[in-house]
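Protein 1 of 2
SEQ + STRUCT:
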Amino acid sequence: MQRCLVILSQQDQAEVLLNMAAQFLARVNGNRMDVLAAREPPTQVLGNMGLTDESAAVLRANQREWADNLHTIFHRWLAEEYGSGAERLSKVEVNWLDPEITVDRIISGYGKDADLLIMNFPDSRDSDQKKLATRSAIFQTGRPVLFVPPFWDRPSGDHILLAWKDTDGCRKAFASARVLLAQAKQVDVLQTPDSPMPMDILPGITPKRLELTPRGDANTDAQAILDAVDAQRADLLVMGGYQHSMLYNRLMGSATDYILAHPDVPVFLQH
């Protein structure tokens, strides 16, 4: 996990994401951080039918101002975190990116090149493109995504809780998080009574076993996971995301959707 992509959205959450990225790179001896403020093309905001030259110019100016404000936050943070250009050369490569770009190009051009994507939890202020970028990050990159709660201001990764279910998503998430587990002071595995401990993907790790009694309701089970995180005072939740089809999730509800709607703790998620 040498390279992370930080996807910025809300200005008041930018520094939180940057701090988390720096912390995780330090934990795993990573060497590169790409910071993306993706400006939305006018056609993705209004569509071709409702677009005029004037409205396109206004939208582009608004997006340029948004990206410039984020760059100001980034530039100040970079100097405080890593020092001058000469000083940071020996620490980590940090790149600022603010192209006008569509979601599919974000994923093909940046997301799949990173080992880890870092972004804020879904926010009611997010535009349609940013909502689409979140789902694309989960479903299309094949990479783990770290969701960071607003205003998170403490270390993450010292006490990790793994929500276990024997699915491809969980196995991928656990395997991707292995480098973090090796650095953790405590690792807990939350599992149902009939679910075997996944020792084949936790080599060298001696986790504490916690039992989860499933209720059959996605929201209730998801809240039980969050309650366990709180009770154990874990600072990172690792889980597989969206274990069922999208149709099933729409009809029956999704534990992943519930957890992403309750930004209580950083969530390391992989589909």
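Protein 2 of 2
SEQ + STRUCT:
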Amino acid sequence: MTAAAGDASLERQMRQRHITLSAEAPATPHIVHVAVGTATVLLFDSPVLPASLELGASRERFERIDITERALILQPRLELASQERIPLTLRFADGHFPSRVTLALMARPGEVDLQVRVFRTALAPEALVEHLGAMQARCEDSGRFANLLFTRNLGDGIVARELSYRVTGKAGPLMVHRVGPRAFLGADLLALEIPLFLVEGHLSWRPGRVEVFVEATGEEVPIRSMDLDVQVLQPGAMGRLVVEFRARPSFPSERLRIHLHEQRGPRGLQLRDVHILRSPAEERH
């Protein structure tokens, strides 16, 4: 657990909460507590304009700033000073009132916001019902294993194992990073984490279709979800691709073939003979 600024012995409690924007005081900032080593995820009940993000500090102070129409992930590179406030604003895409969300990022001893859901009060009752239904679906989506992994909140009952693999085909700019892939096995899920690296001097890369097959039979393995921890993989940078499946009891003893495709592009990656790396003790049995 990350220690709070000014008190290295104090552990932070990770919170999940919601913010309701006020139509009477739309410019009043809402406090969001952030900390080094923890990704804070904000989920919006209405689409925002990613390009409208305004941050009252250099982006170099943040390890991660990932934004989509429905979510914003923030992780500071260094602890914020005591009483320091970093203003942050975003505009909503539909223009309805309140038209923007105003936040103030702060560090708080003993506490950090892991997930914050942002609601607007300006919705009519009928629209509110519709938005709450959509929000519920997104909350279920936010429980995907990739989001738990990216925010370092795996919980109990998940076992991580290293994977062995080999790359086939002509070498291209997209590579498996040297940290190596891992498998995560739980009671009702199987997830494969593949760290990707894009060689410098090439155009950025976005993930497209992912295909997974059983090596021995050619059977295609249904995928529950696929997520990359950055919106776009930039040259010289690493990104973690997580492919999630339903629980697959046969996986510990089988080998898979994985094809990664680029979104609207030809650059991909083929991994063969993907399987759990067994320890010497396991090999003897």
